[in-house]
Sequence to fold (479 residues):
Amino acid sequence: MINMFHLIWNGSRGCLEGCSMTRCTGRFMISRGIAGGMLLGVAFIMGLGASGDVQARKFASDGSTCVSSTGDTAVGRTVTPLTDSDPMDGSGTYSTVAGCNADGNGQLAATVYGTFSEVTGRGGSAFGFLSETGKWASALGLEAVATGTGGSAMGFGSRATALNSVAIGGAAGDGANPLAVENSTTASGQHAIAIGANDVRGAQATGTSAIAIGGEATASAVSTIAMGSGATSTADGAMALGDGASAKDTGSVATGHGARAETAGGVALGAGSQATREGMNGAEEAFSSEVVASTQGAVSVGRDGGERQVTHVAGGTEDTDAVNVRQLESVQAGAVNYDRHDDGSVDYRAVTLGHGGRPTQFHNVAPGEASTDAVNVGQLEELNGRFSRQISGLGSRIDNVEDNANAGTASAIAAASVPQAYLPGKSMVAAGAGTYSGESAVSVGVSRLSDNGRWAVKLNATGDSQGNFGTGIGAGFHW
Fold:
């Protein structure tokens, strides 16, 4: 047989009394503490399970159960006054309020469970001692606060104070001393998420759409992410992943324990890596002299004194691809190599180009200026032209000298061919001609022999085929 009982509160005795549905003899009593637990359970079932009932539910005592018998007490970190009243203002439609000094503030569909808990906006749900929520928000845990519209706070002291923010974490600190309010796990940026805490500080997500996960993690800019104990991301779009990782400039990424990315677009990969070199921003590349306009910072896989190798790199195919050692070795095979001494040491005084007897060309060589500079083909061609012109001029001059010499010889022959006077007291006019090695000359002479036949005088004039002219005079004495 199944027996069913009514529970009736006996105010004078301070307890619930049960009686059979068929008769009320043989009543049994339930203590105040057990009754409180049962009332809370009944309240939960009635408040969350009922449907079609639009009235508010407020679970009150007999007027004495919510009066504290001790002084002010800090359950967590907040000292509260004495409890002195039943749940307040559960009059909002669809609302359920339970707990000493709990307050629904007349809000529509407010759900409040816990001493000093409070809902200040419609649709809010507060579960836990000193918990507080706003419109459409949910708070679960001791001193949990979700005052941002649609926010969610879970855990001791967690705080979600902005639109659609989420805070999950505890403020237990070192287990004996709870964290201060300002060090609680806090999501204060719109759509921000903060999860986790340690004995120093909870995660802090203060930027819009920021995400902070881990004790002391900080995400303080728009759409930034910090994950790991002490991770810090303080610029828009930045990301820090790993304990102590730090991303400090726009779009920077730091991944690994203690990694640091401090320039716009910089990337630090691996524990302890540091990306501190800024983008080229219009500077020229080394070797190629190509101007690069990118402002994105460098990618770093290590730091000074903590370098790393990058392995399994495929060969680059485009101008901006990385190359691997295999490609470099291929280039080196045809590159300049210093000669070596017999002992194998490098001979920096001699360089051999190419290999296997195959000569190598240099291209795009600037004209040399100093005495020890290399010269290019253009300079050699210019020098060759000048030398050729000089040689050609010298040949012409030599030819002229030869022609003039031959003509001079012809002139001498012509002058020698001119006869002279041979009768005493007589004069003679005579002419002669001569030729030598293709050149020719003519000569005209005047001569006279003295009356006594002892003196002879002669005057000659010559002209040759090279346009040269000459004169000569001579005298002689007979005895």
Notes: The chain has three helices and 38 strands.
